[in-house]
Specification:
Strand content: 25-35%
Radius of gyration: 15 Å
Largest sheet: 5 strands, antiparallel
Order of helices and strands: EEEEEHEEHE
Distance between the termini: 36 Å
Structural class: mainly beta
Number of strands: 8
Oligomer: single chain
Helix content: under 10%
Shape: globular
Length: 160
């Protein structure tokens, strides 16, 4: 079985429901995965939008230190401090310059900019990374370099 990332809220290549976007309740989506390598010691997740009119993809969510025993993220877990604390999960910085800059911020592309693609990438890592809260996606990727066993990807779309 290959390493797969799935969501009960939307299928690969399909529209992300409004409740999971900046136009709705801005809840982090429910995700689940299967087929991770047996040597996985930790997971990390990055969600970004390469269609954003910015030099780098717009980062929506950075989540790391996900234990290897965890195989799903419940809807809204980004806003649930008790859930993240109970698992020792850390959240990183998104691309918003103000407001909620750590944790999930859902799709909110510029109006009339067309369909944007949101890449949720889950990384299976071969070691535990003891990293502080608030890393950027670039910082996390740097720490993960040489430790990625496999990557699973789920793409959702959204437009305004």
């Amino acid at each position: 079985m290959s390493f797969q990332l799935l969501s009960p809220a939307f299928a690969h290549g399909q529209v992300i429901p409004t409740r999971l976007t900046g136009d709705g309740a801005d809840l982090s989506p429910p995700l689940r995965w299967e087929g991770a390598p047996a040597q996985t010691r930790q997971f990390a997740l990055i969600c970004d939008d390469p269609d954003a009119p910015t030099p780098q993809p717009w980062v929506h969510w950075v989540l790391y230190r996900i234990p290897p025993t965890c195989h799903e993220l419940p809807e809204g877990c980004s806003q649930n401090a008790a859930w993240t604390k109970s698992l020792g999960v850390r959240q990183g910085r998104n691309s918003w310059p103000s407001g909620k800059t750590v944790g999930y911020r859902g799709p909110a592309p510029p109006r009339g900019h067309g369909v944007h693609h949101y890449y949720f990438r889950l990384y299976a890592l071969d070691q535990e990374l003891d990293l502080a809260e608030g890393l950027s996606s670039a910082q996390l990727l740097q720490h993960m370099q040489g430790h990625i066993l496999a990557t699973a990807e789920l793409v959702g779309t959204y437009s305004r």
